[in-house]
Amino acid sequence: MLKKFLLTLVWLFIFLQMSCSLHSGSTYDRGEMGQPQSFSKGIIISERNVTVKGTESGVGAVSGAVLGGLGGSMASDDKVISAIGAIGGAIAGGMVGTKAEELIMRDSASEFTIQPDVGDPFTLIQVNDEKLKTGDRVLIINSDKVRVTKDKTQKK
Questions:
Q1: Whole-angstrom distance, CA of residue 52 vs CA of residue 115
Q2: How open is the CA angle 143-147-151, to the nearest 5 degrees?
Q3: Of 51, 64, 116, 127, which residue is the least packed, with the fewest Cβ within 10 Å?
Q4: In the chain, which residue ranges form alpha helices assigned H by DSSP?
């Protein structure tokens, strides 16, 4: 029974962590739907792959500590040893859970340097789901977040 519970907790943790997404030119928050967004045009003057560090929200640490504490408490039938095992398991589990969360949430993205048609150049990191590259014309979309997407309009 306890093993099923622990396995369910682990799968729930993994599911919750993987459901978080990185900033993408194609991903919007529900509150942005129907909201006007301004845009300008520009060109990508450089692009490079980057690694986005995973989050450390505490979910991994708490999950790991709970699982480690439960596992450590089963180390012995002796109450003192069981308590020591629970404490040690919780500490070790919390450390492992923190690292696991960071590794699960780590991802790849692209850093774009963009020269707007009007204004100063800037950099932006987002998931490159459109396979944007140096020299591509882009729309620079301004809302709660800045996004770039391939410019499919005719330049006038």
A1: 23
A2: 115
A3: 51
A4: 2-18, 59-73, 79-105
Query: Tell me, what amino acid is at 51?
Result: T
Q: What is the pLDDT of residues 9-61, one digit of tens each?
A: 555 555 555 555 555 555 666 666 666 678 899 999 999 999 887 667 777 77
How many whole angstroms separate alpha carbon 108 and alpha carbon 46?
17
Residues 67, 3 contacting (CB under 8 angstroms): no
What angle do helix axes 59-73 and 79-105 make, rounded to 10 degrees? 150
Question: CA quadruple 75, 81, 82, 88: dihedral positive or negative?
Answer: negative
What backbone torsions phi and psi does residue 58 show, to the nearest 5 degrees?
A: 100, -15
What domains appear along the chain, each with residue ranges and CATH number?
23-52+107-156 (2.40.50.100)
Query: What global pTM score does this model have?
Result: 0.57
Closest to 85 measured CA to CA, from 94, 96, 95, 72: 72
Nearest to 153 by CA among 55, 75, 72, 41: 41
